[in-house]
């Protein structure tokens, strides 16, 4: 039983890490109805920028601020150069644009900062501590704390502020939003800047876990089943989806895995997502597709 | 019609081209006097919506361009302004088909209308109550998701949302679309109320000529991107051609459709 709980908690905490990446998707999807394929590259870019600036001998907090500034700037530039000319184009066009963007950002990151693997130490010990006989990773707990703060902040932002309301309005119908005087460029700039910030947080945590390297962009793939489960438009959904994916993949690996010869952790979340798509295509918390007949 | 001096909106001979090739408006001029309701009438594809969007500058997002002519709001050129700038000046468009933000609540929808205004919470709250006073059904449904409200409620929400910007003028596109006759009447009565009490001027595009001419002060009839007739609403309603083609009232005995078609071909207005 103790072992079960340990696997469960380990899984839940790993899931939070997936949620962090999923959050970035949710932000942009909510405001523009586009799956931003470049989110993974932004995570890599953020982590890469941070370690490179750190390596120049810049103090930790200053490096963090500089990276944040870079990410916000990146968001602003993306909005200006790529998205604004594509206003009112079909969603698939925007999606294709983000695929192009993801390749561009990856290349840009490696061009500026080089492509070698960097270590990243956030100064948090990854020594598991003993909690009534259950071993819990301190690092994972820290990551979970970060995620909790982010989610609370973003939820408040979307539902209680004027600009958050405008963001949701734009997501629903951007022409109508324009007609009531919501300036699309501000809104999208804010969203991309926020997505840059989320990418930074995810990049730091994942970077210190896996090392800052090209494979960070693949972390996005794990965010997809999280999004399908939680819903593409829900901030809390990203978290709950992450928790479910994290917990089930670890439990499945440990308890069901042996029957399949192990290694099911890698595909189990996708299988789960597929089943879920059949039952609840909008996700657990996603906005229902409203259709009036 | 010549209304000089106190016009709030003047459109001078504008030409609109979509996608650089499709000529939609071929020199439309019109004039909205301050504090009046002006109806823009015509069949599908006549250019009513395009005219409204040219004024509100929502055209550019649809790859349309005003290539000739000018648009003045209170004597100031506005044809190069962005929609948000125009809203700040006091011109808001209520788009065809309501276009509510379906995942926001009714109240949130209304609040988005106040986006451009830099005023405190108390004032916004007061305006909200004012809007609810005109649109009573909205108050009961203030916390429902807009996507699940009825067509009439959505039309009210769209007009209320525009009202939250405290406009001097509302461009209202096809308010009767898809609504039951009784509701259409109700919406138009509210429009008249807003016109008289809040002093909002209206330019409204409408296919329902009958209702529009009853509530409007002036009317313009568009055909194929040109104004073919204009005048006081009462005069238009009494005009034989308007009666024949737009109100469906024929002089004399009932005609077969074939006769009407033939007659129509002969008398097509070519301005």
How would you describe what is shown here?
The complex is a heterodimer of chains A (293) and B (271). The radius of gyration of chain A is 19 Å and the shape is globular. The model of chain A has no long low-confidence stretch (mean pLDDT 86). In chain A, helix 1 runs antiparallel to helix 8, helix 1 crosses helix 10 and helix 3 crosses helix 8. Chain A has one domain. In chain A, 46% of the residues are buried. Chain A is mainly α and 293 residues long. Chain B is built from 11 helices and 10 strands. In chain B, the strands form 2 sheets. A 6-stranded mixed sheet of chain B has the order 6-7-8-3-9-10, sandwiched between helices. The chains are: A mainly alpha (293), B alpha/beta (271). At the A-B interface, helix 6 and helix 7 of A face helix 2, strand 6 and helix 3 of B.
Based on the model shown, name its key terms:
heterodimer; A: 293 residues; mainly alpha; two-stranded antiparallel ribbon; 11 helices; globular; B: 271 residues; alpha/beta; six-stranded mixed β-sheet; four-stranded antiparallel β-sheet; 10 strands; 38% helix
């Amino acid at each position: 039983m103790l072992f079960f709980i340990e696997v469960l908690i380990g899984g839940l905490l790993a899931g939070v890490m997936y949620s962090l990446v999923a959050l970035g998707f949710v932000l942009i999807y909510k405001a523009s109805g586009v799956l931003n394929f470049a989110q993974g590259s932004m995570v890599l870019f953020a982590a890469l920028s941070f370690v490179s600036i750190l390596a120049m001998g810049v103090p930790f907090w200053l490096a963090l601020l500089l990276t944040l500034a870079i990410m916000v700037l990146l968001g602003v530039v993306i909005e200006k150069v790529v998205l604004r000319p594509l206003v009112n184009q079909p969603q698939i066009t925007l999606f294709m644009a983000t695929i192009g963007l993801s390749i561009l950002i990856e290349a840009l990151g490696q061009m500026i900062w080089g492509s070698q693997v960097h270590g990243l130490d956030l100064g948090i010990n990854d020594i598991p501590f003993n909690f009534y006989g259950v071993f819990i990773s301190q690092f994972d707990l820290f990551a979970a704390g970060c995620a909790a703060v982010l989610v609370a902040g973003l939820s408040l932002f979307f539902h209680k502020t004027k600009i958050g309301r405008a963001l949701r309005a734009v997501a629903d119908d951007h022409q109508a939003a324009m007609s009531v005087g919501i300036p699309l460029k501000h809104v999208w700039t804010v969203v991309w800047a926020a997505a840059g910030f989320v990418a930074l947080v995810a990049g730091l945590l994942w970077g210190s876990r896996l090392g800052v390297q090209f494979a960070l962009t693949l972390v996005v793939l794990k965010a997809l089943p999280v999004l399908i489960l939680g819903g593409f438009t829900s901030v809390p959904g990203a978290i709950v989806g992450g928790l479910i994916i994290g917990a089930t993949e670890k439990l499945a690996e440990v308890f069901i895995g042996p029957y399949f010869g192990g290694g099911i952790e890698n595909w189990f979340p996708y299988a789960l997502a597929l089943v879920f798509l059949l039952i609840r295509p909008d996700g657990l918390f996603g906005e229902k597709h409203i259709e009036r007949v | 019609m010549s209304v000089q001096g106190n016009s709030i909106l003047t459109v001078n001979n504008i030409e609109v081209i979509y996608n650089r090739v499709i000529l939609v408006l071929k020199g439309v001029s019109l004039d909205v006097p301050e504090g009046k309701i002006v109806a823009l009438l015509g069949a599908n594809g006549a250019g009513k919506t395009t005219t409204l969007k040219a004024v509100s500058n929502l055209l550019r997002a649809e790859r349309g361009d005003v290539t000739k002519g000018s648009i003045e709001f209170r004597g100031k050129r506005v044809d190069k302004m962005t929609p948000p700038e125009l809203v700040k000046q006091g011109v808001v468009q209520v788009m065809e088909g309501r276009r509510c933000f379906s995942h926001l609540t009714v109240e949130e929808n209304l609040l988005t209308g106040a986006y451009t205004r830099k005023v405190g919470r108390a004032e916004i709250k007061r305006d909200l109550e004012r809007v609810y006073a005109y649109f009573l059904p909205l108050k009961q449904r203030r916390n429902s998701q807009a996507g699940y409200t009825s067509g009439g409620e959505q039309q009210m929400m769209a007009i209320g949302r525009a009202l939250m910007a405290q406009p001097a003028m509302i461009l209202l596109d096809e308010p009767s679309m898809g609504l039951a006759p009784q509701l259409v009447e109700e919406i138009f009565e509210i429009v008249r109320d807003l016109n008289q009490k809040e002093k909002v001027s209206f330019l409204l595009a409408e296919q329902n000529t009958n209702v529009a001419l009853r509530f409007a002060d002036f009317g313009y009839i568009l055909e194929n991107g040109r104004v073919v007739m204009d005048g006081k609403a009462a005069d238009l309603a009494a005009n034989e051609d308007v009666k024949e083609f737009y109100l469906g009232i024929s002089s004399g005995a009932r005609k077969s459709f074939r006769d009407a078609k033939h007659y129509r071909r002969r008398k097509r207005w070519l301005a």
